[in-house]
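Notebook B, p. 112. Complex prediction, attempt 2.
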Amino acid sequence: MSFDVKWEEKVYKKKKQINNYPFDWVVSSVSKYISKNKKNVAVELGCGTGNNLEFLSSYGYSKIIGVDGSKSAIQYSKKKLKKNKKIILIQADFSHTFFENVDLFLDRGSVTHNSKKNIKKIFKNILSQLNSGGFFMSSLFSQKHDGFKDKKGKNFFAKELKIKNGVVASFFVEEEIRSLFEEFNIISLTEVINHDKITNKRTSMWNIVCKKN
Ligand SMILES: C[S@@+](CC[C@H](N)C(=O)[O-])C[C@H]1O[C@@H](n2cnc3c(N)ncnc32)[C@H](O)[C@@H]1O
């Protein structure tokens, strides 16, 4: 079991983190690297409330599958996206799912909410399920993120999400990122640091676009 049930019990069930718009990094990366030609399946791992799926559905994929461990998030997305017949929503722990004919795996800040040990396994599975020439776009926490305060690996985002002991999260340095993606062909690797000089808050993500040869 990799999925942290607090996402269901303390977040989505309480109607928190309802994201309704696609993330800017998803919009810019998909529009930069993906053509609108006919393609097979796209899978978003940890689709939350389905905010990135509708956008993906305009990129020529025959099917767009959104997977999330949270029942409430999937119910919310199903209701919102019911008119779009290309989108399929599945409640599951994505460390145990298997998909065929995948031309794109998208991970916008979801896999990083698992332990490092599980992340390694999830990446192996992604590589085995992805078609040759297929893309994997992933956004993982950098250790420069404010959330990386308790180095004992506890209480991540407890304050922000108002959850006792926080949620599972893994934060990476560049060497670890390069090693995680060593079997992929990395096209772009950026460490994005957003430092608000007024609030002094800092977020930081590794954004990776890669392909399977
Ligand atoms: C920070 S949210 C990101 C949601 C969405 N991708 C977005 O861009 O707004 C992380 C999501 O990953 C899901 N998640 C994390 N680990 C998971 C796992 N092992 N299996 C299924 N879902 C998982 C959580 O339920 C949550 O919806």
